[in-house]
UniProtKB/TrEMBL annotation:
<protein>
    <submittedName>
        <fullName>Pseudaminic acid cytidylyltransferase</fullName>
    </submittedName>
</protein>
<dbReference type="InterPro" id="IPR050793">
    <property type="entry name" value="CMP-NeuNAc_synthase"/>
</dbReference>
<dbReference type="InterPro" id="IPR029044">
    <property type="entry name" value="Nucleotide-diphossugar_trans"/>
</dbReference>
<dbReference type="InterPro" id="IPR020039">
    <property type="entry name" value="PseF"/>
</dbReference>
<dbReference type="InterPro" id="IPR003329">
    <property type="entry name" value="Cytidylyl_trans"/>
</dbReference>
<dbReference type="Pfam" id="PF02348">
    <property type="entry name" value="CTP_transf_3"/>
</dbReference>
<dbReference type="GO" id="GO:0008781">
    <property type="term" value="F:N-acylneuraminate cytidylyltransferase activity"/>
</dbReference>
<keyword id="KW-0808">Transferase</keyword>
<keyword id="KW-0548">Nucleotidyltransferase</keyword>
Amino acid sequence: MSKYLCIIPARGGSKRIPQKNIKDFLGKPIISYSIKTSISSGLFDEVMVSTEDPEIAEVAKSFGAKVPFLRSVINSDDFSPTVDVLLEVIEQYEKIGKKFDYVCCIYPTAPLISIENLKLGKEKLIVEKRTSIFPVVGFSYPIWRGLRETDEGTVELVWPKYVHTRSQDLEEIYHDAGQWYWCNVTDLKRDKKVFSDNSSVIKLNQSEVQDIDNLTDWEMAKLKYELLKGNK
């Protein structure tokens, strides 16, 4: 029987929003939403938090996540890629005799994630035999009408050939929603990357996605969370 692991990577030392991963979000540490959703989904044999910060570790454990080991120093700085963190966790588990077939990386500042989408991602990963599945959202404005500043201080169209094309005729382009990634462990260990030629996606709408890089984003995430919760 296949084994499933949820990894929530929660590094300490956020500069733009101090203690971002455990900052209060509508009455609870924001990481608790990712932990609760992961556990409540029933999709995982284990839900763990990867961190080098003892305070984050204690908060994570208080909400039901496991922290069987702390993250290494080499994977705890601002430049540590997510895939290296995932591979380190997988390796550490294998050292203690625990092997997993599939892993889902869920970010700690993603309170808008839904169990339904996590289940859909797992199903697509297995049924379609993908290396990874992750959610995307369309750009709110057509990127084909993008502008850039010139050296002279003026602006120009990046793709001027689309200046007269109707918006509805422009191809929709998506970006990573920054919430979670389902991965086949064998493929992840081989390719050492989350995105590959055999990755696929789940499309979300703007109300389900909010990147949180500053305090304005934080307040917007609150509004979207309350909107989604009210609708449900």
